[in-house]
Amino acid sequence: MKQWYAIYTVANAEKKLYNRVIASGIEAYLPLERMMRQWSDRKKEITKPIFKSYLFVYQNTDEYHKVKSFPGFLQYVSFGNKVSTITESEMTLMKVIVENFNQKEITGKLIKGDKVKILSGPLEGYMGVLTKVQGKSKVALHIHQLKHSFILDISMNDVIKL
Fold first, then answer.
1. Over the chain, what HEC string results?
2. Quick one: average pLDDT of 75-88?
3. pLDDT-based confidence at 72, cuts 50/70/90?
4. What is the predicted pLDDT for the residue at 136?
5. What is the pLDDT confidence band of residue 76, given thresholds at 50, 70 and 90?
6. Is the pLDDT of residue 109 over 50?
């Protein structure tokens, strides 16, 4: 049975490990964001991982040990000495956020506030936590198994308090 796992990678090795995993026939997901970088002589659009030193793999128990042998692999993400698996719905949530929202902040803490349900848009039906950040209304959507939250600008017309 296949499950999603998060992997810690060597610093700045996310893309290389992703390519190795994909080349071996194992499904993987590396959430990336585009940004403009300014150097003294030029500007360039680059892509960088949203989660530093994280890669997500969808694998069975045979592939579990195979991935450990790849250069760039450090360890599987675990909490309380138990390797953490990520549900299909949390992976879907992460993919929808990455594909549909340009302005993202990620925090390792769950934001306190009112629980809300999103009524429309690509995140319709998902629940999150409403918070105020620098005077703007934002919604934090928590990925439970990673202990991280996405903080997104979402119109107040698109959410309802639970």
1. CCEEEEEEECCCCHHHHHHHHHHCCCEEECCEEEEEEECCCCEEEEEEECCCCEEEEEECHHHHHHHHCCCCEEEECEECCEECEECHHHHHHHHHHHHHCCCEEEECCCCCCCEEEECCCCCCCCEEEEEEECCEEEEEEEEHHHCEEEEEECCHHHEEEC
2. 89
3. very high
4. 56
5. very high
6. no
Joined together, the tokens standing for residue 49 give 């991982």
CA 152 – CA 41 distance, rounded (Å):
33
Rounded distance, CA 33 to CA 82, Å?
30
Question: How far apart, in whole angstroms, are the C-alpha atoms of residue 125 and residue 103?
Answer: 20
CA distance 68 to 139: 36
Tallying the residues shown for the chain, one arrives at 162
Sole residue written with tokens 């049975």: 1
Residue with tokens 């919604």, as numbered in its chain: 139
pLDDT of res. 86: 92
pLDDT in tens, 49-62: 988 899 999 999 88
